[in-house]
Design brief:
- The chain has 501 residues and is of the alpha+beta class.
- It folds into 2 domains: 312 residues, no CATH class; 140 residues, Beta-Lactamase.
- It contains 18 helices and 6 strands.
- Strand 3 and strand 4 form a beta hairpin.
- It is globular.
Length: 501
């Protein structure tokens, strides 16, 4: 048994490492398929092709299952669905990495993948209430819970993929837990796939640990999330429902809390709930002075403690679960207290949020409009003119943009643009050599609202720069000129374009 476990672990690891290494050496993913993400912690463009290594490690592990299992078992529709759904999740993310899809399109595709998994037999049909003999038969509602479980885990792994090595490390720990649960439950197929995925993620982490040479991308995140969800459901079929569903939730306590707070935070700010930001726990730790390496190691340690709690809950059949839940609630209260989140402070934040929601919505609409203008603009200088229009409409009284040591600036006459003590100021390092500094009058914005809209403004220029790079195969500078239109429609759009002076 030990030899078999080591074989699949090494098989997945070597395959994943080799695929990513060859892809990087070949320059795959280093051009059009990569785009700058404003809220990532790295500077520069890093290929998002780590999912290729993971999916190859996953695939070769699955193929070897045909050698270890008998022919009848290999024909199981449930087993096919784990592989087919994983590949479909990978392809969805891979397309999104190449050309970003809309949130609604991705969610619809994820729901279809989850429905396929449910139809194939990966289902949550009943839930046993801990410490009682009661088992609730879900019936038709089992479809919604199953779909929610699969979609939630796919997105959860993707949402925490904002720091080198973080999503991969947490995914590796969880796959180790699932391998143990499969071993205890006697689910051989789950055990082999879990071991292969452990190896595949480990091989990827050799390239992803800070400083990262490659990112997992949506392709790898969706694949890892789907495999975690599906193997959990496979283990549940053997009667270990508590361990299969509750244990992964406990092990993922850190990212679940981080994402939950992020959704609340964005809702209070009037931002889209799934919009990336720099308020995640790893962003805060880096801002406090920790290096990327120390930050990811600290988060590993916290996740490992959560993993051990999940393991103890499984071994004790849920006996220690109330203790862990109580400890978690105390920890949340301590964190809120350290953040000075008193009822009065919460009331003030809610009041500021209600007052600033319209400003936030206007800024988001202007950001989207500016992205469209990037498609039509014929020069970088004209696009800067449009950006000034955006900044003025948002409410900034002064701004400067530096690209490769070339600088452009503007100010609003008859404003407090030259009185520093009366202005909020924020500088964004968008990418290497690109720096945006924004100023706004304190009489018109609270500090909290200013930080929100300045972040949206920086995101607007980042999006425009990405659009320009993808369309014109060149970086966006003030002297940049768009390449000649290739179709009559593009020519017409370019001819109708008028920069805002």
């Amino acid at each position: 048994m030990l030899f078999t476990a080591l074989f699949f672990l090494l098989l997945g690891c070597v395959t994943s490492w080799l695929v990513v290494y060859v892809a990087l050496r070949a320059g795959f993913g280093c051009s059009r398929g990569n785009y700058i993400q404003h809220h990532h912690t790295h500077i520069g463009v890093i290929p998002r092709i780590g999912g290729l290594g993971i999916v190859f490690g996953f695939t070769i592990t699955y193929l070897f299952c045909f050698y270890f299992f008998d022919e009848q078992d290999n024909r199981s529709l449930v087993h096919y669905s784990v592989f087919a759904g994983g590949v479909a999740a990978f392809l969805l993310g891979f397309i999104d990495d190449i050309k970003p899809l809309g949130a609604r399109v991705k969610l619809l595709a994820q729901i279809i993948i989850a429905l396929f998994a449910h139809h194939a037999g990966l289902q949550i049909e009943a839930i046993h209430i801990p410490f009682t003999e009661v088992t609730l038969q879900l019936g038709f509602f089992g479809i919604f819970i199953t779909v929610g479980w699969v979609v939630a885990l796919m997105n959860l792994i993707n949402l925490i993929d904002g720091l080198d090595g973080l999503a991969g490390g947490i995914g590796l720990m969880l796959m180790c837990l699932l391998a143990y649960l499969a071993y205890e439950g006697g689910v051989a197929f789950s055990l082999i796939l879990s071991l292969g995925m452990c190896g595949a993620i480990l091989g990827f982490l050799f390239h992803n640990f800070p400083p990262a040479k490659v990112y997992m991308g949506d392709s790898g995140a969706y694949l890892v999330g789907y495999v975690i969800a599906s193997i959990s459901l496979l283990n549940a079929e053997k009667g270990t429902v508590l361990a299969a569903l509750i244990a992964p939730v406990l092990a993922l306590a850190l990212p679940i809390c981080d994402v939950a707070f992020a959704i609340i935070r964005r809702g209070l700010k009037g931002l889209p709930l799934f919009r990336p930001d720099r308020g995640h726990i790893h962003h805060r730790l880096i801002s406090s002075g920790l290096s990327r390496q120390h930050t990811v190691l600290l988060l590993y340690a916290i996740s490992l403690l959560a993993l051990l709690a999940a393991l103890l809950s499984f071994i004790a059949k849920g006996l220690y679960l109330p203790i862990f839940v109580g400890f978690f609630l105390v920890l949340v209260l301590v964190v809120l207290r350290r953040q000075r989140m008193s009822p009065k402070a919460v009331g003030r934040i809610l009041n500021e949020s209600l007052e600033g929601r319209q400003d936030t919505k206007n800024a988001l609409k202007l950001r989207d409009w500016f992205a469209l203008e990037a498609v039509r603009a014929d020069t970088g200088e004209h696009l800067w003119s449009d950006f000034q229009f955006v900044l003025r409409k948002i409410g900034f009284c002064r701004a400067s943009l530096c690209i490769a040591k070339a600088e452009r600036s503007f100010y609003i006459p008859n404003s407090n643009h030259d009185k520093t003590q009366l202005l909020w100021q924020e500088t964004h390092e968008i990418n290497s050599g690109i720096e945006l500094t924004l100023y706004a009058d304190k009489d018109y914005f609270s500090e909290r609202q200013f930080l929100i809209i300045s972040d949206i403004a920086a995101e607007a220029w980042t999006g425009a720069a990405t659009q320009w790079r993808l369309l014109n195969d060149a970086e966006l500078t003030f002297d940049a000129t768009a390449k000649d239109p290739e179709t009559y429609r593009e020519q017409k759009s370019r001819s109708l374009y008028r920069p805002t002076y």
